[in-house]
Amino acid sequence: MKKIIIPLLASSALIFTSCKEEKKETEKKEIEPIEEVQAQETWKKPATNAKTYAELSIRKGDDWEPKKFGGGEFINVESLQLPEGHSDHAYYIRYEGPGWENSQVGYRFYLDWRNAIDIWGKKTDTIVLPYVGQDNYEDYHHDSPWGQDILKAGKSLGLGGYGRYVQDSVAHFRNVEKTLASVENSENSSAVTLDYEGWKTGDTTIDLEAKFSIYPSDRFSKITLSPSQEIEGLCTGIVKFDDVPLIEKKSENGEWGYIATYGTQTLVSDEDQLGMAIFYKTSEVEKTQEGPYDHLVIFKPTTQKVTYYILAAWEQEKNGITTKESFLKDLDTKLDSLQQNGKLE
Fold this sequence. Notes:
By secondary structure, this protein is mostly beta strands. The chain is built from one helix and 21 strands. Helix content is 5%, strand content 37%.
């Protein structure tokens, strides 16, 4: 597929929705139709033997209702510039943002002010995202043969989303001049790249690039953040749940560490088990601490790339991890690999 960029539409104000999130406090704006996007080539679904996959899919045409799913066709694009005013509580992007997956796990990103990362719990080892949310926008919130989305992000960063910790809270992306998203797929990896221009928090405005990469095997995804200037408080985190304690550990040489949680912290049921972790390089981190909604990893001010890894292990995954002991053993194996090789890939 050729690269497609949707121009910024000054007259468009979209309202983005998620049944898993409280309504945004800000007032909704009037919606005007969005011009139809013409694909230069017909999108082709990934090969049956594809090992990784990333996608970005938007509503085709201008006859959709932002307040409820009205049917219609989605079209996959390689890149997208968000229309001006785009926010939560709209049905413009299929499952609310880009998604990326391999045979064991999938992730999705809320491409709006929330900028949280959600988890696709997969029961099958095949590529599933091209078929998710096509017939009924809300289906992926419920159990199906392939799995479902399993994390309630709420006001948090989900698993590995990012923001700026300032004045005892995390600033998300409510004030951004322009956002461009793109996806790419190759034989051995898939990636989502987000470019933010004019991200304002407090009295500071910067540009930021974020890239999410996934590889053919294992449950982790690599994330790199590239800020245009040094700022205090750039951070990532894991959503907090009552009665699910935080786990922290560092490698023997102290160069890598992780924060993690394991327990009943999914939308599936009160017994369903999920493990989540973030691996980070200690030289890039100022501190870890508790935020209002997240266990936070706060990075040192820098203009260099910051790299961390997220990992989700769902007990219903095919041949998945089903106990806390097994989860911690898996984390320790990866911590050793990071100590030895400096990367997971």
